[in-house]
Amino acid sequence: MPYRFSARHWDIFCTVIDNYGDIGVTWRLARQLRHEFGQTVRLWVDDLASFARLCPDLDPDLDEQERHGVTLRRWPTAFPDGIAAADVVIEAFGCQLPDSYLANMAARPVKPVWLNLEYLSAEDWVEGCHGLPSPHPRLPLTKYFFFPGFTERTGGLICEAGLLAERTRWQADAAAQAAYWQQLGVPPRAEGELRISLFSYATPAAGELLQAWAAGNRPVRVLVPVGKVLGDVAAIFGEETLQAGEVRQQGSLTVHVLPFTDQPGYDRLLWSCDLNIVRGEDSFVRAQWAARPLLWHIYFQDEDAHLVKLDAFLSHYGATLSDGACTALVATHHAWNRGQGMAEAWAALAPHLDELQGHAHGWPERALGPSDLATRLVQMVENTLQ
Fold first, then answer.
1. Tens-of-pLDDT digits for all 386 residues of the chain?
2. Radius of gyration (Cα) for the chain, nearest Å?
3. How far apart are CA 28 and CA 307, in angstroms?
4. What does each C-alpha distance from 240 to 86, 108, 221, 310, 342 come to in angstroms?
5. Using CA atoms, how far apart are residues 355 and 325, in angstroms rounded to an integer?
6. How many CB atoms lie within 10 A of CB 261?
7. Is 61 part of the annotated catalytic residue set?
8. For the purposes of burial, counting CB atoms within 10 Å of the CB of 57, is it exposed (0-12), middle (13-18) or buried (19 or more)?
9. Contact status, residue 198 vs residue 273, Cβ threshold 8 Å
10. CA distance 224 to 273
């Protein structure tokens, strides 16, 4: 660790909007601040029931509890009185702090470092906005914008120390992977089999792609954690839905429905597949750390703003690919996110899978750069308080 960081109290506020993306990122960040930087962290969450699916040992009926060294607090509509403001306050993804808490922040002799942790984007404008101050219109407080990103002039990407080494050990450990698949009820790989995880929003693109795999010559085994895309998967088998533990087969395609898993369990799934189809922000970043080719189902935004973010990422990600592989990768992402054209897109992408695999192996170090998000965040707090 290049710096000695002061131990401080942090409050992180999170509202759950997209089920798992917002809380997924803040939960990872809270644990990393605690375990790697020795910070005291309190995480305020408005939806503990959704949070409990990522943190199964959490009790959603408790207003306050400690898990993994982090204090977890229910964030109720009527915020409790008398809550002392922390040294560092993070409002995640534009959530609005309670008025009483803001007043407590303003009353401190040394004002807290107040940060708005924004969504990840590879767009160029992020560099110019990262770290900008925004004075409160009435109170003696200044909020700073913290933008995650893919360059040194942004807030970086969230990644725990040692994660990439742990992934490398896992992918070299055939016995551990065999035991993992056996535990999930998934048989050993057939010769030439392509193994793919599928965790996306509902989209007709999923059914189209699955049917293309079913009609193809190569065996494809798809692992689908319980989630929003399950209805599209079930439809190609003439069913309304599927349950965890069920297996369906059609032509060259076999589908296994997996139970929803916690974050470490999802990492192992990503590390163990040949290609990962992921959604949102948290799963998107974890798929990059898996060093496997990925297909990103980005969260929909009005006026196709999400497609601008998608293309900005692909311009970074595909910069060192051959023209043919890059063109096929972009076309596949567009087809998936527009919900049509996946059969043709897959036919064009499949010949480039070996190149995409090699590219994905080297991508994590290039994307991560000199430091991860938590390190840059703590350094920014240190610099602000000097």
1. 445 678 999 999 999 876 677 899 999 999 999 999 999 999 999 999 999 989 999 999 999 999 999 999 999 999 999 999 999 999 999 899 999 999 999 999 999 999 999 999 999 999 999 999 999 999 999 999 999 999 999 999 999 999 999 999 999 999 999 999 999 999 999 999 999 999 999 999 999 999 999 999 999 999 999 999 999 999 999 999 999 999 999 999 999 999 999 999 999 999 999 999 999 889 999 999 999 999 999 988 888 889 999 999 999 999 999 999 999 999 999 999 999 999 999 999 999 999 999 999 999 999 999 999 999 999 999 998 87
2. 22
3. 26
4. 49, 56, 21, 31, 22
5. 7
6. 18
7. no
8. exposed
9. no
10. 12
User: d(Cα 303, Cα 8) in Å, to the nearest integer?
Assistant: 41
CA angle 34, 282, 25 (to 5 degrees): 30
Angle of helix 323-338 versus helix 305-317 axis, rounded to 10: 160
**Cα distance between residue 170 and residue 168, in whole Å:** 5
* Catalytic entry in 91, 281, 282, 372: 281
Dihedral sign of CA atoms 252, 256, 261, 264 in order? negative
Which distant-in-sequence residues (6+ apart) come within 8 Å of 340 by Cβ? 204, 205, 208
Q: 220: part of which helix (H) or strand (E)?
A: strand 220-225
CB 214 within 8 A of CB 253: yes
Instruction: Note if 99 is an active site residue.
Output: no
- Token pair for residue 340? 């049509």
Question: Which residues make beta-bridge pairs with 10?
Answer: 41, 88
pLDDT tens-digit series, residues 313-346: 999 999 999 999 999 999 999 999 999 999 999 9
Cβ neighbourhood burial of 370 (10 Å; 0-12, 13-18, 19+) = exposed
**The one catalytic residue among 11, 22, 87, 208:** 22
Whether the CB-CB separation of 16 and 26 falls below 8 Å is answered with no
Of 237, 234, 233, nearest to 251 by C-alpha is 237
Q: Which residue has the tokens 């060093």?
A: 291
Percentage, residues of the chain above pLDDT 90: 92
Distance between CA 173 and CA 341 in Å, rounded? 37
